[in-house]
Amino acid sequence: MTDINDLRTPVLAMNNLPNVDGAYTMHYDETNNIRRLHLTPDGLNVRAPQCFVLGGVAHRGAPPPLDFEDLRSLLRLQKSTQELKLEHLGKGNFLKLLNSQKVEALLDWLFSRDLFVHYQVLDPLYWSIVDVVDSIVTEDGNGQLMMMSPMLKNDLYTILRDDVEMTADLLGRYSYPDVGPDRRAAFIAELRDLLEARRPLLHNFNYQMLKGLLKIAAKLDALPYLEDETPNVLIDGFGAFYLQRFALFKNATHILDIETTIETYLRELDLRDGTAPICNFSFVDSKDHSWVQVSDAIAGLLGKFFSFVNRNSATDLSEAQAAFNDRQKRCLETLIHLIGRSIEECPAFVHYVVSLEDQQRRASVLGF
């Protein structure tokens, strides 16, 4: 049995989240769900994992009626189109989608109504390597080091994502995350060598702090999150991220596109609110639910945006924005207003598991 209050209470204690107990209806879809990320003899099973996004559209109370024919007319979809997908609005990367008349129409329509967007963003590679820092900080027990852990995770990620194939080779040689006590010293030594080789990627202060962290690691008796783990499995599924939403917004109604693996995961948890069974979510066929189809388009667009942010430097992002045409500027501005309105309603509508650098890149585009 899993009591969702055990999951949400610590989050509420650490964050000011107005309206999180609201009776919303939240529709969902997802993008870039690789389901599992693991190491193979040839590297990662997914060569370049992109940001996983789970999100969509939210409403106060029950959702207003939405007929697919209304969507077809609004977005000028072809008569042969039976279900709205992002690909029906435009194709290509984020910049190309911003230049789509249909994407502009969808964003304008969403903003004109009393609607919100909600989403969780996860960088799979970042999530896979943070246990290195968490293991060291937890075992060392230094409070100041704990406060600096987000920066340290960011800096370790910076040197590891610079060459993903080399990183996969390094992790694979140590059956990461099951490094174990016998290989711990060699693993940390290789990370220190890599840090030296990629020193130009970090400011001197960040380099010195990460170097100090790895020196501490070399003297520790254990690295708790890198022992007795499943070898070579970095991510075994995204079920926990669905669960987090259902727990945090426990008074909301959650409607999702069919995802059999996630349904099985949740059913096996025997979810409860105290002693009462949880029944605040359902999985539906998106063909019969237009709001889920709209959520597909929104989740897909956001997935393209976060991949755009993740794969471009701050300079490249600035140069790209400077070259926007009028439609791209209008689309981005509407998206910014839509997300901003949602955060004002409830900050928990958005959640990021990405590096500090990528959060800064995001802020450079969105303004928050």
Please give a structural write-up.
The protein is an alpha/beta fold. It folds into two domains: 2-124 and 236-366, no CATH class; 126-233, no CATH class. The chain is built from 16 helices and twelve strands. The chain has helices at 5-14, 68-75, 94-98, 101-112, 124-140, 143-147, 149-161, 164-173, 180-197, 204-219, 239-248, 260-269, 290-310, 314-322, 326-345, 356-366; strands at residues 2-3, 24-31, 37-40, 43-44, 52-60, 116-122, 233-235, 253-257, 271-273, 276-277, 281-284, 350-353. It has a six-stranded mixed beta sheet. It is globular, with a radius of gyration of 22 Å. The model has no long low-confidence stretch (mean pLDDT 97).
Major sheet summary line: 6 strands, mixed
Number of helices: 16
Q: What spatial form do the alpha-carbon principal axes imply? A: globular
Number of strands: 12
How many distinct folded domains? 2
Percentage beta strand: 5-15%
- Helix content, binned percent: 40-55%
Strand and helix order: EHEEEEHHHEHHHHHHEHEHEEEHHHEH
Low-confidence stretches: none
Helix/strand/pairing category = alpha/beta
Mean pLDDT: 97
Q: Which value, in Å, is the CA radius of gyration?
A: 22 Å
Pfam families: DUF3800
Protein name: DUF3800 domain-containing protein
Which descriptors apply to this entry?
DUF3800; alpha/beta; 368 residues; DUF3800 domain-containing protein; 2 domains; six-stranded mixed beta sheet
